[in-house]
Amino acid sequence: MINNNTSTVNTKTSINDFVVKFANTNGTGSASANNMFAKAIMRMGIPVSAKNIFPSNIQGAPTWYEVRINEDEFLGRRGGQTEIIVAMNAQSFVADIKDVAPGGYLLFDSSKQIPEQLLRDDINYLGIPISAICLKEFQNPRQRQLFKNVIYVGALAALLDIEFGVLKTLVGDQFKGKEKLITPNVYALELGFQYATNHFSCPLNYRVERRDLIGNRIMVDGNTGSGLGAVYGGATVVGWYPITPSTSVVEKFASYCQRLRIDPATGKKNFAIVQAEDELAAIGMAIGAGWNGARSFTATSGPGISLMAEFLGLAYFAEIPVVLINIQRAGPSTGMPTRTQQSDVLACAYASHGDTKHVLLFPDSPAECFEHSALAFDLSDRLQTPVIIMSDLDLGMNDHLSAPFIWNDKQKYDLGKVLSIRELDNMESFGRYRDVDGDGICYRTLPGTHPNKGAFFTRGTSRNKDAVYSEKSADYVENMERLQRKFATAATLIPKAEISTGLQSTQIGLIYYGTTTQAISETKHLLQKQGIPVDSMRIKGFPFGSEVEKFIEQHEQVFVIEQNRDGQMKTLLSTELNIDPNRLASVLCFDGLSITANQISSDIIHVIEQQIPNQEVV
Amino acid sequence: MSFAKSKFKHKSLPVNDLGLTYRDYEGAISTLCAGCGHDSISSAIVHACAELSIEPHKIAKMSGIGCSSKAPNYFLNNSHGFNTVHGRMPSVTTGANLANKDLTYLAMSGDGDSASIGLGQFAHVVRRQLNMVYMVANNGVYGLTKGQLAATSDRGVKNKTGDISLFNDIDLCTMALQLGASFVARCFSGDKAQLIPIIKAAIAHQGFAFIDIISPCVTFNNHPGSTRSYDYVQEHVTTGAVTDFVPTKEEITAQTPEGEFEDICLHDGSLMRIHKLDKDYDTSNRLKAMTDVEEHKERGEILTGLLYLDPTASTFHELNDTADTPMNQVKQDLLCPGERVLGTINDSFR
Ligand SMILES: Cc1ncc(C[n+]2csc(CCOP(=O)(O)OP(=O)(O)O)c2C)c(N)n1
Ligand code: SF4
User: Fold this and answer.
1) Is the distance from CB of A56 to CB of A337 less than 8 angstroms?
2) Which of 57-96 (B) contact A at CB < 8 A?
3) Predicted structure pTM score
4) What ipTM was reported for this prediction?
5) Mind listing the pLDDT tens digit for each residue in A235-292?
6) Do A234 and B335 touch (CB under 8 A)?
7) Under an 8 A CB cutoff, do B346 and A404 touch?
8) Would the keyword Isomerase be found if you checked this record's keyword annotation (chain A) (predicted)?
9) Which of A382, A523, B97, B190 has its CA 20 to 30 A from that of A11?
10) How near does any CA of chain B get to the CA of A607, in Å?
11) What backbone phi and psi angles, to 5 degrees, belong to B79?
């Protein structure tokens, strides 16, 4: 039965619509080969998405890389069984066989036989003696290990009809500057390609066909977008403490700064990065720098957010600009450190004790990670308050097909209300917390500006309008009310929610944010097929703009789709907009994997069916 | 504050190089308990800064939370100040310093603030060699929360409510020495003649300068049996050396007999002149300084004076190779790589 034969089970033909999953072992160097596979498909003009599913472990445990190819641009996680699995990990082999969809394929290393009892007769086996080939062709043990991955990519090229030339150029691009590596990599690709061509009837019924659907899009992870956005946004000071999945934000920031921010004349750095002793210090540094007029940020994830809470309260109350990039992962506590969630919404919106509220941004793509992180510096300077970017592991660490990063050279940094020495000279008197413009945002001065005007004491303790310590109730209340006013101003400055209404009028509205976006176009398609047209709104920031309230008012049934257990965005919406929570229904996924369109649509249908039990939903 | 200091300046008040009198370096009226050692520290800072002719607005006053951390209100009215959160002044000062290396950072903390909740941040700011003056007003108790024992309390002492300190004390000077501080001193707030020149030298020093200042709390730790009371400290203090600070511009005249003093040239050309009371006194030996502190402690004495100085130390900015223009003044064209570069970066992701 396992005789390297592809034709045991019939497979329906599917062009540009299937999922390939690579089952690997952590630390075996499969990431770049898998990535090359996804990129080759993108370069053939076909929409593709890639998700890493990896354990909280460095070496040896199973990892999966899931590539969805879909020319209708349905690029969220599809869920369900997989058409093609490349099973390279003995540990997960049993589960991987079970995961193949009936009629699908299991590509495996046939250097060893599969035990009889594991065989299924409703799937196809593609056995390639990958280890044996490597043993024969390569001398060096590391190469033998690494090229296994390249060989199966080569084989997939033949099986799925990926243009070999595209792969060759990719290898060239990947090893630019390390030309010695190009020849053996191309050779390994050819070994796989030849083996598949000679032993199987290529291409399979699942295959790709060149399209022109990619345009100028790029494939990149969100953390690269965030780090680069911080470079473009003018961040100069970073305090940080490593934590998955936020670490690469600062690593990317650092590496772009090394390339782009070294003064050519002196060789000195126009940036300062400190790997702090913990998250308390990390945000403390960012706040100190923000107080002193530099653009600064820190990046962290759930446990770090908990530690930063006290300082966030200080920055809110003392009104200091600072940017915090939160790459959410599955909590509570250490939770599942390498799985995704959107579960810090409330912790961030209200981080710290007392009546504290923070400005949040919810990017949904690498391009928006870039845009939001650059924008966050303007916003926090203008509003003199922390701005928290709510990315997550899925967005931050996975490669996504994204609009390119955009910057317009006409964009000028908006440093907000900072008084210069001349402005201070021309002022009769200065008071740090006077609401001169009525928007709740006061003027600030930076240390060192003026010899005898504008100095004041910054503190987290109550004070009057002139920054003098005061416990008078009236002073405190006035200050707290002004901060509310400032928050209302913030609602007018943050990006507006993106609303999409169909041609048909509908009573049903979907609200979503961040990475949930990936599943929405497919969800709408699935619902439409069931005769349920829906409108949708993507929330891009908090505080909510007036359009958010309006959207909810205009729809009889509103679903809030999010990836946490407790419906945190729903809570925030009903609390902040004073909406009856019963008007909002939650669609939730909190298993650590990205929510799927199938799940959302079936949950919605279920709720609707329950409401109208006698009516059939078609 | 319900009342303010008089703005009247007597004509005969001496003026410094900037034409300012020491009154221009004062702060608000203190609300600390009358007789609190921290007020003497404030006053020493006022004198030190006035005598050094530093422009007040070029100083940033940093602190955590505690009576000691309130003290920056009471000096340098024309400087910006920042009362941060309990124990975390070092990180905020680090960030502030990274943003603008051209200011002088004068930081005040308490022994609770630095040796308990903030011990981690204290250790790391020393390690990072931040160019700042870090002063701990060490009273052996928590003043602001009314008298609990601090981690710097000597083993066996009793606080006012009778709690006994069961554990070894943390000696912040020894820690600073061990962690690589390039300037370490211990002073007594009641000894201005010692404190003022040491603060001046700490300011002139380029690098991390730590001064542990024994600063009695009259309200909660001035009772018999305390090892931080005025009386106890006055009786048990020994001074390794008396220190003078000689600014760059002053001619150095040798009034002191050869061999009994030592001049150490600081970064800006000014001198630390050390008059040795103890002939073995050596401010360049870090290990010996640690042993000296411990030996004196074993004898029940408090060794004060400049304990260690490395005038050649590098600062964080030197080690990091930071550009000369302070980070908060670098213009957008140097920070933002622009559209064209972004185009090539986008290409690398296709
Ligand atoms: C997170 C936090 N915990 C506790 C406190 C309460 N608190 C304020 S000051 C202080 C101790 C101050 O002692 P020390 O630093 O020795 O200063 P002193 O008042 O003695 O000068 C404490 C515990 C606080 N402000 N913040
Ligand atoms: S309680 Fe102690 S430390 Fe605080 S002000 Fe009074 S004397 Fe000073």
Assistant:
1) yes
2) 57-58, 60, 72-73, 77-85, 88, 90-96
3) 0.96
4) 0.96
5) 999 999 999 999 999 999 999 999 999 998 899 999 999 999 999 999 999 999 999 9
6) yes
7) yes
8) no
9) A523
10) 42
11) -105, 150
